[in-house]
Design brief:
43% helix; binds NADP nicotinamide-adenine-dinucleotide phosphate
């Protein structure tokens, strides 16, 4: 590892937007750890990237599992001694899933999107603090924007996903809290919305492709010291909270 080489971890990097973020960061010369629940899926995702000469390493990561998260933090500490970029991408939306009560949907969604991201962030804070320019990107959603949702002309005004939106509103709140708490250590902690994108989570419905969705996450992962801290962004700029 050269001293200038940045090390990033992307959760949920075996498919969808996480895979595209990981690929884009690797193209920027970052050594990317592909956090994947099932390591075999991570190895499948990594293979074509490694063939192209990109530096990617699949790692087992289930953000709902203390042991998995602690094992990975230990591995990063022993291998790299620091982490420069954390992209909290792993997430789920269960509002349209049949067979679950709304309470079960809420509990499971908060457990993954909010508590899972928090667990991973907390476990990696010391390693991020060892970076000269630590960056955390939390993958959120415009559906959590109270500002946009109060606008009846907003293009997604008809989309009502109560448990998903609540979970991402919590992600936004955590983003602001971590940004304030870590500002004097040089961190930049920002939330992004990738946009409505063709992935398994949306039954590949929208036209927007993961590579386009990944652009804002990659940009915020690589921002300089003058960049905003504690904001919420998409391709067009700042999103109303
Ligand atoms: P996706 O294709 O369903 O991918 C979700 C990823 O999260 C998968 O890699 C999945 O791994 C992983 N994951 C699930 N549970 C996990 C756990 N316990 N630990 C670690 N990883 C876990 O979804 P996506 O559309 O790419 O979404 C990525 C992020 O973007 C999410 O946070 C989502 O809320 C957000 N987002 C998506 C859209 C959109 O339109 N697609 C819009 C706004 C925001 P497995 O393969 O093992 O299940």
């Amino acid at each position: 590892m050269s001293n200038n080489e940045k090390i990033a971890l992307v959760s949920g990097a075996n498919r969808g937007i996480g895979e595209a973020i990981a690929t884009g960061l690797a193209h920027e010369g970052v050594h990317v750890l592909l956090g994947c629940r099932d390591l075999a899926n991570g190895e499948t995702a990594a293979a074509p990237l490694t063939e192209k000469g990109l530096k990617v390493t699949p790692v087992q990561l289930d953000i709902t599992d203390d042991e998995s998260v602690e094992r990975l933090a230990k591995h990063i500490a022993e291998t790299f001694g620091r982490l420069d970029i954390l992209v909290n991408n792993a997430g789920v939306g269960l509002d349209f899933v049949p067979g679950l009560s709304v309470v079960e949907k809420m509990e499971q969604t908060l457990s993954l999107n909010v508590v899972g991201g928090l667990r991973l962030t907390e476990a990696l804070l010391d390693l991020l603090s060892a970076s000269p320019a630590p960056r955390i990107v939390n993958v959120s959603s415009e559906l959590a924007s109270f500002g946009l949702r109060h606008d009846p002309t907003w293009e997604h005004a008809d989309k009502v996903l109560p448990t998903y939106a609540a979970s991402k509103a919590a992600v936004n709140a955590l983003t602001v809290s971590y940004a304030a708490r870590l500002a004097d250590k040089g961190f930049k902690v920002n939330a992004i919305c990738p946009g409505f994108t063709a992935t398994a989570a949306t039954n590949f419905g929208p036209d927007r492709q993961p590579e386009e969705a990944a652009v804002i996450a990659i940009r915020m992962a690589l921002v300089g010291d003058e960049a905003p801290n504690g904001g919420f962004f998409n391709d067009a700029g700042e999103i109303a909270w």
